[in-house]
Amino acid sequence: MLELVQDDEVYDDWPFLGRREPHRPLGAGSRLAAVRRTLYESALAAIGTGREARVATYVRADPGTDVEAAHALLAKYAQEQRWRVSRERFTDRPAAFPLDTRAALIGACRYAGSGYADGILASDRTALPAADETYESYLRWLHDRCAFIAFLPPTYKGQQ
Questions:
Q1: Tens-place pLDDT, residues 67-124
Q2: Which of 121, 43, 51 is nearest to 89 (CA)?
Q3: How does strand 84-92 pair with strand 54-60?
Q4: How many domains does the chain have?
Q5: How many C-beta atoms lie closer than 10 Å to residue 56's C-beta?
Q6: Residue 130 — pLDDT band, cuts 50, 70, 90?
Q7: Cα–Cα distance between 11 and 143 in angstroms, integer?
Q8: Alpha carbon distance 4, 37 (integer Å)
């Protein structure tokens, strides 16, 4: 009898198991990336093809960050994905976050969780809390409300 393999038991090199390569379990970052991608795809499937996904942009503004340019880049990517960008934008400035508490991120999650947006678009994983447990709780909380977190692709520069 075949047994289903749990997601956290699948190795990074799963297709190459018989090729004498070392076996390593998924790291926390890889597992969370897979969880985010799965929940993101599930939320987009729930939206269906009948309407555009609505996203709110979120920027964690480190010192020297051009906030307007960051939001514009996120909006441009969203439009290329055929997502509708919310007028509501969320920005956490350096003084606003003692590492784990980010008022604008919490506001963005509440905004999406309340149904005003289908998701939150951020630049990358570093914009969100560093603690894996906290990050996963944001992902799952949003998923329970049919919302998602999306990131810009690492190579995206805004050119078409």
A1: 999 999 999 999 999 999 999 999 998 765 555 578 899 999 999 999 999 999 999 8
A2: 121
A3: parallel
A4: 1
A5: 25
A6: confident
A7: 25
A8: 20
In a domain, 81, yes or no: yes
Q: Which residue has the higher pLDDT, 49 or 118?
A: 118
Whether 155 is covered by a domain: the verdict is yes
Specify if 42 maps to a domain. Answer: no
3-state secondary structure the chain: CCCCCCHHHCECCHHHCCCCCCCCECCHHHHHHHHHHHHHHHHHHHHCCCCCCEEEEEEECCCCCCHHHHHHHHHHHHHHCCCEEEEEEEEECHHHCCCCCCHHHHHHHHHHHCCCCCEEEECCHHHCCCCHHHHHHHHHHHHHCCCEEEECCCCCCCCC
| Lowest mean pLDDT segment, chosen from 82-86, 123-127, 144-148 | 123-127
What's the pTM value of the predicted model, to 2 decimals? 0.76
Which CATH number characterizes residue 134's domain? Answer: 3.40.50.1390
Q: Is position 41 within any domain?
A: no
| Domain range for 86 | 51-160
User: Any idea what the Cα angle at residue 12 is, between residues 9 and 18, rounded to 5°?
Assistant: 90
Q: Which of 32-41, 42-51, 82-91, 98-107: highest mean pLDDT?
A: 82-91
